[in-house]
Amino acid sequence: MEYGIICLFPAILTVIVAVWSKRTTEPLLLGALTGYALFSWKTGANFVELASTKFFEVFTDPESVWMLMVCGLFGSLIAVINESNATNAIANVLGKLCKSKTTTLLSAWILGMIIYIDDYMNILTVTSCTKKLADQRHIPREALAYVVDSTGAPTSVLIPFSTWAIFFGGVFYEQDAIKALGYGDAISTYMQIIPYVFYGIFALAIVPLFIVGIVPKVGAMKRAYARLKNDEEGYGIIENAMYHQNDKPDDYDKKASAWDFVIPILTMIGVQFYVGDLFVGLIAALLCCIVLYVPRGKITMGKFCDYWIEGFADLVPVLSIIVAAFYIEGAMTAINMPGYVIHLIEPYVNAQLYPMLAFWVVGCLGFITGSNWGIPAVCAPIIIPLGFAVGANPLLVMASIVSGATLCSHACFYADATVFTSKACDIENTAHVYTQLPYAGIAMVFASVAYLIAGYTVV
């Protein structure tokens, strides 16, 4: 059913309200309800019944339930590990190696590239290791959040053995035309596009340039550092930090061991790598914590259960944003907004411009809906055949879809990785978004230019 340009109204409304209100969940819900209102108007469906049914479907969809459980269990793991005081021990170990702001942020960048299996896992592990040390080195948490988020999805898309590679490899390999290229299975095919995932490459490369000062601090990031200089405590996080009453003082439990952090995290990574399911890896890590902490008296079984629940509850604000993002994704799909946007660009398409335009379309749609996997999955069956039809290089086309998804994950106000990073760093989501956007914008410009050049030069 044709909606015409009116199908863009819910998306535009969402962005305007989000920027004006500096809120996240409410604009997404408003945009979704507006989308379903348009659908009801066109089809004659009962709006109340449709909107409520689609909302509850979020909680019955296996993908969304998996994501909600994974995010919540990350909160549980963070809370339990923090209670063992293992994060203080990690900070002490890194503190002996990282004596300055520069080396501290570089260590976060390096750790982010090492822990590449999944962006959630990356964010949790790197933040837990470096947050306290960043405070001690008088680094604004906004800067740490930028470094951590920039080594999440941008790293995962550049490694063939990650959750992102497995997902996108599967999405692309569903297309018969891609199978006909003869690169082998889904992962082998994905490996061919890695050199062309330009947004991931530039987003990751800008980080060390920012850390050493070659890329300057601008906008909200500059103000965050200026606030730090005027902060008598020297932490630079007073305005946006959200401390928990269970935070421990520096001298709590002198016998804190870094192994209390390393063993559960390695368990999570190992199990995830072996079974291919992060949910199972998190359960294994939590069970490992029981075995590691309870017999040694680090934590009682009762307290373990308390922190399991409290940690999950701490992530409720993040979970609400994810639910709202799934909700608006369904509404935008119902009114065929992705198809309409692709239809708009068709008259301007040629083989050379197509990769850049595909990058913009996926990035824009993902930014609006907050869906860095859903939108590419919907768009790929349209974008890839159209790319073949105009003669665009298929590797560039696939890479541009991945880059667009990475841009969404990195830059969108309400993308799961963005809100998870701000929560992990204990700062307001808007504080993280506004400090990170200029650098995401720089990477987007460089990636756009790279796709334009590659469109003319890569045969």
Overview features:
459 residues, mainly alpha, globular
Description:
This protein is mostly helical. It is built from 24 helices and no strands. It has helices at 9-21, 25-43, 47-57, 62-83, 86-97, 101-114, 119-136, 141-150, 153-156, 163-173, 176-179, 186-193, 198-212, 219-230, 259-275, 278-293, 301-314, 316-334, 337-345, 354-369, 374-390, 394-411, 416-424, 429-457. Residues 232-253 have low confidence and may be disordered. The two termini are 38 Å apart. Helix 4 packs antiparallel against helix 18.
Layout of secondary structure:
Elements: H1 9-21, H2 25-43, H3 47-57, H4 62-83, H5 86-97, H6 101-114, H7 119-136, H8 141-150, H9 153-156, H10 163-173, H11 176-179, H12 186-193, H13 198-212, H14 219-230, H15 259-275, H16 278-293, H17 301-314, H18 316-334, H19 337-345, H20 354-369, H21 374-390, H22 394-411, H23 416-424, H24 429-457
Helix pairs in contact: 1-2, 2-18, 4-16, 4-17, 4-18, 5-7, 6-7, 6-8, 6-13, 7-8, 7-23, 8-23, 8-24, 10-12, 13-24, 14-24, 15-16, 20-21, 20-22, 20-24, 21-22, 22-24, 23-24
